[in-house]
Design a protein that fits this description.
- The complex is a heterodimer of chains A (135) and B (58).
- Chain A has 135 residues and is an all-alpha fold.
- Chain A has 6 helices and no strands.
- Chain A has one domain.
- The relative contact order of chain A is 0.19.
- The model of chain A has no long low-confidence stretch (mean pLDDT 91).
- Chain B is mainly α.
- Chain B has 2 helices and no strands.
- Chain B is elongated and about 45 Å long.
- The model of chain B has no long low-confidence stretch (mean pLDDT 93).
- Classes of the chains: A mainly alpha (135), B mainly alpha (58).
- The interface between A and B is medium-sized, with 22 and 13 residues.
């Protein structure tokens, strides 16, 4: 009986970790994995739209990991919250942005907010996998 | 690309309100109500703040 319970707990734990990782790798994927298809697709569309529009508005995607500029570090962490699309955009050569563009600051806001919202989506996927949230 | 400040505001507000409504409410009806309230809040508060700060351009 207790072995069955332990196996169930291990399965639940692995499901939670998988949902969290998938939610970070691609926005909405964690909810799709958990069977929340509608919610996952809406979140995926909204967050990817924010990020793609931000990149199209000449957002900067440069990576700052040092502590010499804490605000740039926080900005990078916010953008990285969106997961694979961030890596993909950098690989495609969009990391520099265009500081002279009139939409540059809007683009930065779109990409950073997209990443921050995806962090909320990851937390929601974890709660859903643990059964804390219903739908 | 988008060069209108108003259009940028509307698109940004709509997308962020969609995510918040989807995360924070459970039923479709509740989500729609929350979306409309958040969207109106984003757009109207930005317009009011923009109007109030108009005398201070820099």
């Amino acid at each position: 009986m207790s072995e069955t319970r332990a196996a169930g707990a291990a399965r639940d734990s692995s499901r939670t970790v998988t949902a969290g990782l998938l939610a970070w790798v691609w926005p909405g994927l964690g909810h799709l994995y958990l069977g929340r298809r509608g919610k996952g697709l809406v979140l995926m569309g909204s967050i990817l739209a924010l990020f793609v529009l931000g990149v199209a508005m000449d957002s900067r995607l440069q990576l700052h990991l040092g502590l010499e500029d804490p605000l740039a570090l926080l900005f990078s962490i916010a953008q990285m919250g969106v997961g694979a699309p961030y890596v993909l955009a950098r690989l495609l050569g969009y990391e520099a942005g265009l500081v002279t563009s009139p939409m540059y600051e809007y683009g930065n806001t779109f990409t950073a907010v997209g990443g921050l919202l995806n962090i909320l989506v990851i937390l929601d996927a974890l709660d859903t996998a643990r059964g804390v949230r219903g739908r | 690309m988008m060069h209108s400040h108003m259009l940028t505001l509307v698109v940004f507000s709509a997308l962020v309100s969609t995510v918040f409504a989807t995360l924070l409410r459970e039923t479709t009806r509740e989500r729609l109500r929350f979306f409309l309230a958040a969207f109106a809040g984003f757009v109207l508060s930005t317009l009011v703040i923009g109007w109030l700060t108009n005398p201070f351009p820099r």
